[in-house]
């Protein structure tokens, strides 16, 4: 594993949709994980790649995902997910994310994904070096 | 904080719905957080309480939520969420969850919630002692 | 097409989860379509069948789905979806649904599904007679 | 009611997210209703208004929503929702939507919303004339 502390991070802009709120009047907490994933996939596209293709034999399931909530998001809030390549091993990529609305930090999260051959059962496989290089470059712009 | 290692945990049974799967053929990872929340709220009901009421002034947003994924869930899988009161402070409750399908562990997660007066802004408030007592009792059955 | 007006309908019981509500304090309207689908799939199981299997070559996408909303659903409401086989053609099945909470009608909906070979592109195929017979029987209990 | 056949419609651009697909490899049908709603709310913003505000006393629940599915959407597909003001009554607005991906029609839908004072119970109220005028103008650009 190496830490990629130099990366500025890739920025993904988004606006809160009505169906993402709950009866407490704020965004339901489960959406933060979806926002992080949307940013991850946008980073792949910015790197000229696609994390999934219809009918493909490989996939990138989660090993873990966590989020610390600092401030709530409200309907129509415009926010950004800043996603960095946080660490890499032979078969896994760890992304570190910060969600911000202007100067306000909404929260921070970490997701670790593993490269697998689809199952059942899923089988972890090596990550081509080129993928890590492209993602790191795209997240430093 | 105290750890409640004696609790067997409250068991919440559930079946995977089609709309919870994704194109990788397995349950989308964001659903694990919803499954944990469903179990938490079922525990509240088992304790004779309701975590939310229409028009109420207080709420229980997340401070943090994490999940470690061990095995995937598939469409129509029957599984259980075992939820325990893991730790309690004056204003927070931490739940520890294990999701199992028969003898297979799907994953383990932790959620910390804080008692607040609804905002904006949200303001943390004390948890009535009775709530903790009832939840602990209901999760030991 | 024939109308199956004699069918009492298959009853699927459900409780509203917190993550299904929105900031208006009621269940987000998009969930009614998911509730109808859950009931449809429970009917298939009651008929001893599974509407989908991992890796299968055929599928049942929607041709149309509509819902008329009479009364809102709230958090923790217990409700039932009553689903009937409403009409059948060589390649399609139409389900008629009523969602009720006790004596209150939440709304009524209709979904038409088509049997296809997965694509791309999707290709409509004939429905085995046995499937219709089993579903009709299971929805008359 | 009057039909607004002259309106070109307001165009809302969107890309399919991974979490919106299901195990059949296509966008889960329930998302079409959310896409229509996102377009409706974007139209309100284009008209200089907001369909909902935190803590507001009024709301716009659905009376009905239907969708006819012509072609499936896949992960990362870029598509547009074209939304028109289709009909207006004293307390309701009907939107007609077409979802397109390039030259391919994904489907067409209709949503009728009613202006209400929040409950329980919900109570239908008149729509200010200015709202209809602004929406009609914004959807003709």
Entry summary:
The structure is a homotetramer of 141-residue chains. By secondary structure, chain A is of the alpha+beta class. Chain A has two helices and eight strands.
Structure notes:
4 copies of one chain form a homotetramer. Chain A has 141 residues and is α+β, with helices and mostly antiparallel strands. Helices cover 18% and strands 37% of the residues of chain A. Chain A contains 2 helices and 8 strands; from the N terminus they run βαβββββββα. In chain A, the strands form 2 sheets. A 5-stranded antiparallel sheet of chain A has the order 1-4-5-6-3. In chain A, strands 2-7-8 form a 3-stranded antiparallel sheet, with no helix packed on it. Chain A is globular and about 40 Å long. The two termini of chain A are 22 Å apart. Chains A and D meet through helix 1 of A and helix 1 of D. Strand 3 of chain C pairs antiparallel with strand 3 of chain D.
Keywords:
homotetramer, 141 residues, alpha+beta, Thiol Ester Dehydrase, Chain A, 2 helices, globular
Distance between the termini of chain A: 22 Å
Number of strands of chain A: 8
CATH architecture of chain A: Roll
Strand content of chain A: 35-45%
C-alpha Rg of chain A, in Å?
16 Å
CATH class division of chain A: Alpha Beta
Q: Please provide the ordered H/E string of secondary-structure elements of chain A.
A: EHEEEEEEEH
Task: Classify the oligomer.
Answer: homotetramer
Total of DSSP H or I helical runs spanning 4+ residues of chain A: 2
Q: Tell me the strand order in the biggest sheet of chain A.
A: 1-4-5-6-3
Overall number of structural domains of chain A: 1
Query: Percent range for helical residues of chain A?
Result: 10-25%
């Amino acid at each position: 594993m190496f830490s990629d502390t130099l990366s500025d991070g890739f920025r993904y802009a988004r606006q809160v949709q009505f169906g993402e709120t709950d009866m407490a009047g704020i965004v339901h907490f489960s959406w933060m994980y979806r926002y992080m994933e949307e940013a991850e996939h946008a980073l792949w596209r910015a790197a000229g790649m696609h994390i999934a293709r219809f009918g493909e034999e490989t996939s990138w399931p989660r090993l873990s995902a966590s989020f610390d909530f600092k401030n709530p998001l409200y309907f129509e809030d415009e926010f950004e997910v800043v996603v960095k390549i946080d660490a890499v091993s032979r078969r896994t990529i760890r992304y570190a994310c910060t969600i911000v609305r202007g100067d306000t930090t909404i929260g921070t999260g970490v997701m670790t994904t593993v490269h697998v051959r689809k199952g059942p059962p899923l089988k972890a496989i090596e990550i081509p070096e080129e993928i890590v290089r492209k993602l790191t470059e795209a997240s430093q712009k």
